[in-house]
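INTERNAL AUDIT FORM
Audit reference: QA-55
Scope: verify that the stored structure record matches its stored sequence.
Auditor: D.O.
Record contents follow.
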Amino acid sequence: MYSLIKKTLHIVVPKSIIFKLEPFLRLFHYWIYKGSLYKCNICNRGLSRFQISGDDKICPSCGSLGRNRRLWYLLTSRFQKEGQRVLDFSPSRCIYRKQKKENIKYFPTDLSGDFIAEYKYDITKIEASDSYFDLVICYHILEHVINDIQAMCELFRVLQKGGECLIQTPFKEGDIYEDDSIVVDNERRIHFGQEDHVRIYSVEGLKKRLERVGFNVEVLQYNEDDDNRRGYDTNEVILVCKK
């Protein structure tokens, strides 16, 4: 039901209005899924089940994906502290709404217009002074960036000493796969999995590139049962990059 309403609204209603209406529309949608078997740790609502879309388990109440829920757990349990300056690239709407209520200095940024954000930083040329941010969230961004080394250098530059950057992308086994000659959307979809992706990283390959620009990198690996109560992704890797 929610998906049908969403598709209809996208045709006739500006995106900014849809973003504002979404929490109210989802509140009605949630009652179909209300229960106690599962629980979303972002909106804290009990669910009889998650909404399934491909490999994603979507919370019908707040729209979070499994990776969003894991990120929120990590932020609140380990990485984020009061008063920090937090830079967040293209944040999911559920994370954005939670962060705006936190006691932090929040800098959500997006160039595409597909996410809620107050800033429009180019990740290869971030308009911030050296060592400005305490924490950077860079989820599913680098696979879109042609000059990813420059982006990594910028992430390192704007992070203060001792600060951390959380990075995630799609991953594959073996080496990084990239080919600068592949520029057509359909070909990129075939080779990289999405029309606006320009490469597929391997965990080790991305780790080495990040270390090359100066980061100390910790690899967090998570494996969950399919029926885990929070609906986390069953196989997930997150790179913690410390300056």
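Auditor finding: record pair retrieved intact. The chain is about 35% helix and 25% strand.
Action required: none
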